[in-house]
Each structure stands twice: as structure tokens, then as C-alpha cells.
Description:
The chain is α+β, with helices and mostly antiparallel strands. The protein has a single domain (26-116), classed as CATH 2.40.50. It is built from two helices and five strands, in the order H-E-E-E-H-E-E. It has helices at 2-17, 67-74; strands spanning 29-37, 48-53, 56-62, 80-98, 102-116.
Amino acid sequence: MLHKIILLFLCFALACTDAPNSDADTHPIETMEAIYRNDLPVDGCDWHFYKYSPTETLQLVEDLASKPKTDALKKMSLSSLNVVITYKRTGKTQTVKCGWNTTREMDEINIIQVEIK
């Protein structure tokens, strides 16, 4: 009888500690128009996605898995491109190099699709 109680307790404990796979799974897929820009030469920040509206300013940076998609964009421009991106937030932030030897934390995204506008 005691071994059944212990077995039941172990099953309960394992079920309670089994966490979801990833926080990124909880984030919805989003699409927006943005500017993919590199303002580092003029004391801004290195390559990132930027969107400004009167209600909010977004600065997002791609995750490592998205680099092949953005490397192609970097070859097309010296400083900025208007794009439409479809992405999911990863739930992480990334440190981006900025001018005057500073850095900025930006929300990280996984890019599903990026198109030049």
C-alpha cells in the first residue's frame, strides 16, 4: 500500500513539474510595416526593425535563426529599407550596439517572412 502512495505522489510531482516547451509558443504571429535600418554610422543603433506611430515606437531585432533572411536585406542597402514583416516574438531581449559606445535592449523576434515594400 505504501508503494502505491509513493508511486502516486511521484506521478503527481512529475506532472506538476512538466513545464510548457517554450514561452515563444504563447506569442501570436504578427505582421507590420517597418523600416529595417542601420543607424550606427550616425550614432544610432545597429540593424533593427523600427516602427513609429503617435501611440508607440517599436524597435525589434531578429533572432539567430532569422539572420539568413536579414543578411540578404543588408546586402541591398547601406542604411534602411521599408519592409513588411511577419514574425513571432520570442519573449527574449537582445543587446544591440549603438553609437557613442552604448547598447540598447530590444525585443527579439523570429521572422517568418520579410518582404521589401
